[in-house]
Design a protein that fits this description.
Shape: flat
Radius of gyration: 18 Å
Distance between the termini: 58 Å
Strand content: under 5%
Order of helices and strands: HHHHHEE
Structural class: mainly alpha
Largest sheet: 2 strands, antiparallel
């Protein structure tokens, strides 16, 4: 067990911090979303947002491949929602301004 642990650390030493990084990203992302969109959400939606944190953290903590998937999906969502050049290439663009679709 010790030899395999040492080999694992030699191959990927950053993976020791991966669950903590996952935790930080989920909590910071949730805090940002809550702070930015709280006025547009009712109590039920706020409860879903806050309640999803422990579930996402537990999944990322205990199931390693989900961390990579979460990072990929999160990055794709940020690019898709915040890249004006990419949006201009789409056949339909929907904008949300102050809680109203424009």
């Amino acid at each position: 067990m010790i030899a395999s642990s040492r080999l694992y650390l030699q191959l990927a030493p950053w993976t020791i911090f991966a669950p903590g990084i996952c935790l930080a990203l989920v909590v910071l992302g949730t805090a940002y979303a809550f702070q930015r969109y709280r006025g547009s959400m009712d109590g039920y939606e706020q409860a879903i947002l806050v309640g999803s944190v422990p579930v996402l953290v537990a999944l990322g903590w205990f199931w390693g491949p989900l961390r990579g998937l979460g990072l990929g999906v999160g990055a794709a969502a940020l690019v898709a929602t915040h890249n004006e050049r990419l949006a201009a290439k789409m056949d339909r663009v929907v904008r949300l301004h102050e809680g109203v679709l424009a």
